[in-house]
Amino acid sequence: MNTFPDGFLWGGAVAANQVEGAYLTDGKGLSTSDVQPRGILGPVVEREPGDRGIKDVAIDFYHRYPNDIALFAEMGFSCLRVSIGWTRIFPNGDEHEPNEAGLAFYDKLFDELAAHDITPLVTLSHYEMPWGLVKQYGGWGNRETIGFFERYARTVFTRYQSKVKLWLTFNEINMSLHAPMTGVGLPENSTQAQIYQAIHHQLVASALAVKACHEIIPDAKIGNMLLGGLMYPLTCKPDDVFAALQENRTWQFFGDIQSRGAYPGYMLRYFRDNGISLDITNEDRVALRSTVDFISFSYYMTGCVTTDEALNQQARGNILNMVPNPHLQSSEWGWQIDPVGLRTLLNVLWDRYQKPLFIVENGLGAKDRVEADGAINDDYRINYLNDHLVQVREAIEDGVDVLGYTSWGPIDLVSASKAELSKRYGFIYVDRHDDGSGTLARTRKKSFYWYKDVITSNGASLR
Ligand code: BG6
């Protein structure tokens, strides 16, 4: 019977802005997430005192984390992926001294995890940056932001050096091309040249964080984080196959730089062909050579690429312009479910980078029904996760080095794209709804017991 390696990290992943709430508590500043109360796909709204948004309370993890971590421990988690809210530490982003109350919160959070033997995996920036840096400096479009981020990264590495040994730099760094405000603090109508320049600054900042982490915590490992958007050619027409290769490079290029330390030739050609001329200094080139220790990624779906313009037109309007795959079923949110794609992606990334891989997000967003007796029978979620984990096991048998698996949203949280609570990912149900009603009470779903079995059997219970 194939099995998972000893020491494989099992757990779940959350992001500060989707669970914590407490949005101005203890000196926290406004983040880009706070000014997008309807999610990544919604508009930027300048917050006025008294305005309310679903993320302001989220699932109140800021106050309820001890109870939630106890539930994760009950499932046997050996790892929890969390992010630090940058604006809890540097409320405007450009301060010289950090906010002690924000630092103290994460001290308590990491201590609570340690008390349950749960290893923290910490993302420095998960889909948010200080709104002050966007308004006053122009976000990542401004080179100065690199220094502000480096100060933040060095501050938290120093503070948590004995508590956190696994780090990630930027969540889904490749999403900036599709969601510039969320990714790099630029308006949605920015030009490609502006977005790529901002991305360049962020890539330099990511590399400087890697360097700082290695200096400050020599026994830590730090990875990047990609949205693993694997694309298939819709047909075997050679042009479609090449178009798919090119489309995959739009996200792989981030991994190529973060893992190999330099811009790949195909990107330099893309910039030349599109009249994009980036300001890349020699100092930047040196900085980029600090490469990550492991590659982490999220995986939800795959898509198809075609050179047929009529089909492409139909696909426009999704956050990623992908053409549907006729061989796959979709979730209620139209995300195509493809467990085998995860095995393929793991193999592709391993062949490309030869660095350990970490699946730090995967899961099914679905509407749950609470039965009269309070039960939540989420067999659809169990099936989804089971089928994906079976493919992870296959990839490990293929020889891929996989460090761990943290499913997305082990407890229901606010969705990133549209700030919905009705799109639930959790093993733990949270009584809170899109209109803000609910008691915030936590309930174990059927999948809670299923995941517990998977973890305690180290995957042997998978079907
Ligand atoms: C990833 C993000 O894109 O997908 C998460 O890193 C996000 O923050 C997750 O929540 C699922 O997307 P959504 O829109 O369903 O929350």
Automatic annotation (TrEMBL):
GO terms for molecular function: 6-phospho-beta-glucosidase activity. Keywords: Glycosidase, Hydrolase, Plasmid. Belongs to the glycosyl hydrolase 1 family. The active site is at E361. The lineage of its organism: Bacteria, Pseudomonadati, Pseudomonadota, Gammaproteobacteria, Enterobacterales. One of its GO terms (biological process) is carbohydrate catabolic process. This is Phospho-cellobiase. It comes from the Bacteria. Its EC number is 3.2.1.21, 3.2.1.86. It is an enzyme of class 3 (hydrolase). GO terms for cellular component: cytosol.
